[in-house]
Amino acid sequence: MKIHLALSKDRYATIISAYAPTLTSTEETIEQFYSLHSVPTNDKLIILGDFNARVGQDHERWKGLLSKHGMGKMNNNGLLLLSKCSEFKLTITNTVFRMANKYKTTWMHPRSKQWHLIDYNIVRWRDIQDVKITRAMRGAECWIDQRLVRATLQMCIAPRHPKHAQTVHTFYNMSPLRDPSYLQTFQSCLDNKVSAKGPLTGSSTEKWNQFRDAVKETSKAVLGPKQCNHQDWFDENNTAIEDLLSKKNKTFMEWQNNPNSAPKKDRFKSLQATAQHEIRKMQDRWWEKKAEEIQRFADTKNYKQFFSALKTVYGPLKPTTTPLLSSDGDTLIKDKKGISNRWKEHFSQLLNQPSSVNQSALDQIPQNRSIEQLDVPPSIEEVQKAIKQMSAGKATSKDGIPTEVYKALNQS
């Protein structure tokens, strides 16, 4: 039986109640039962029922599927159930909560009179926090060999955050353009690139896109990307760290191929501890060296190198968002979207005020004549003058071309 419950506008919970075949059933019947129907991955999935399977308590081998509070030994149906849970990323909530066995067992064997756990409540891995308790109900009305299982869930629907495409601009190395010979090489390469593509054709937007692509390709080939000045202990010891991690990963794979081998497990644990110890020593040595270097700059009163070393270690300061008060003055807005909406509300109230000016008085004001020369496209000399007045070191526009490139082209 399957129930489809609506949780929100586009989120649902699928509840499946099942009764699994016993060990005496044919293999075809068992395989047909465990061929789960497709459920949308965004839906919350809850599987309830009698699976006639004992999953045991080997939680170390079945991490994420079983927790520490299982019971009994595993049988063939239990292995099949755990395999399916691993395939579809499900977890058995009966083994999550610590309680007495009488609150976990659900079925009594008719001959041995022993109680076993064969009825389960199964959810997805990511939804385990929704389950508050799963326990067997010890009925007092009649004595039967099967107990009901009660699960308390509190559905938490995480909000969806739409993904926006981010424009990533490449920062080019502009320092070589200070050398006149290198600048001449850059200009000649750009001339060859533009002449190889032929004359610019199409509309003004298409012409600009062709020119922009030529400039960016030449900058990437001649100037290259800008090198990051930020220093990090991990990057400077990258080769040694990769060697340690590769040895540890190799021993881990050998242990996983033979999980019952105690020597392989001990060797992996030993190499894991060694890798952690050596990496921490590398980090301590790197910081000691940097601290001595910065202290030397402070002792010699070389403040320029002192602050430069601090900046290369910690990186530039990240801009912070200044919070704003709401219109009523009671709530402090900290998120960027709320701050943007508050500024929008402020300027909307400030600028959109009713006008008290008489329109007839405005019509009597003499109008100045139109200056048609302002509508004429700028000349080459005016464009060159505007480029010379541009400040270097500023952020690039949406086209991703730095100001230094325009200045270099203006000198040709």
Q: What does this protein look like?
A:
By secondary structure, the chain is of the alpha+beta class. It has 4 domains: 2-153, Endonuclease/exonuclease/phosphatase (Deoxyribonuclease I, Chain A, 4-Layer Sandwich), CATH 3.60.10.10; 170-227 and 378-412, no CATH class; 233-314; 318-350, no CATH class. 41% of the residues lie in helices and 14% in strands. The chain is built from 12 helices and 13 strands. The chain has helices at residues 27-34, 76-88, 180-197, 204-222, 233-236, 238-257, 262-299, 303-314, 336-351, 359-363, 380-388, 403-410; strands at 2-6, 12-19, 44-50, 55-56, 71-74, 90-92, 107-108, 115-116, 119-124, 131-137, 148-153, 324-325, 332-333. The strands form 5 sheets. It has a 5-stranded mixed sheet, covered by helices on one side. It has a two-stranded antiparallel sheet with strand order 4-5. A two-stranded antiparallel ribbon has the order 7-8. Helix 3 packs across helix 4, helix 6 (238-257) packs antiparallel against helix 7 and helix 7 packs antiparallel against helix 8 (303-314). The longest helix has 38 residues, at 262-299. Residues 391-412 are annotated as: Disordered. InterPro entries: Endo/exonu/phosph_ase_sf (IPR036691), Swc5/CFDP1/2 (IPR027124). This is Endonuclease/exonuclease/phosphatase domain-containing protein.
